[in-house]
Specification:
The protein has strands spanning 3-6, 11-13, 16-18, 21-25, 36-39, 44-46, 49-51, 54-59, 67-70, 74-77, 82-86, 89-91, 94-99, 108-111, 115-117, 121-125, 128-130, 133-138, 141-144, 148-150, 154-158, 161-163. The chain contains no helices and 22 strands. A 5-stranded parallel sheet has the order 1-5-10-15-20, with no helix packed on it. The chain has a 5-stranded parallel sheet with strand order 2-6-11-16-21, with no helix packed on it. It has a 5-stranded parallel sheet with strand order 3-7-12-17-22, with no helix packed on it. The protein is 0% helix and 52% strand. It is globular. By secondary structure, the protein is mainly β.
Length: 171
């Protein structure tokens, strides 16, 4: 992916994070955070564009092993993470999953093409979350939260346009 943050808290101003990809081909693959992967951080993003990033997962197994393609734009984890995004554009990010096996034993999960919040706190203000999408091929596929998917933690969203996200619910 574009940026990997682990146990640090950088500040980003007027940045463009674009055209990055995380690809995993394997059983129980976890391609997370195509644009930005954040763990245990208190980072701040101001006037940043996170655009056209991708997660791509591929699985070929009949033993209940899956691929989890999460957070095409941004993936946030750790209960101690507290991320602030103000005046940001999160757009055109993509989660793709391919379940190659046709015996119903595996599945491709695509969640949170714009933002996936696994844990922690997200403060998203004065921003746009748009045109994020998910797609997949193969036998078994699940799509959830094209704009933002909150698995755990707290998402504080204020004055944010969430529009034109495709393949699953916006939030």
């Amino acid at each position: 992916g574009g940026i990997y943050i682990n146990g640090a808290s950088p500040t980003f101003n007027n940045c463009i994070i674009r055209d990055n990809e995380v690809y995993h081909y394997g059983n129980n693959s976890q391609p997370y955070g195509g644009g930005i992967y954040i763990n245990n951080s208190s980072s701040t993003f101001t006037n940043c564009s996170i655009i056209n990033n991708k997660t791509h997962g591929h699985v070929n197994n009949s033993s209940n092993e899956d691929t989890h393609s999460y957070g095409g734009g941004v993936y946030i984890t750790s209960s101690s993470s507290s991320i602030t995004m103000d005046d940001c554009l999160i757009s055109g990010n993509w989660n793709y999953g391919y379940d190659q096996h046709y015996a119903n034993g595996s599945r491709a999960y695509m969640r949170g093409a714009g933002i996936y919040l696994a844990n922690g706190t997200l403060n998203l203000t004065n921003s746009e979350l748009s045109n994020n999408f998910m797609s997949g091929d193969g036998e078994e596929r699940t799509y959830d939260g094209s704009g933002i998917y909150v698995s755990a933690g707290t998402a504080n969203i204020e004055n944010v346009t969430i529009a034109y996200n495709q393949a699953a619910q916006g939030i």
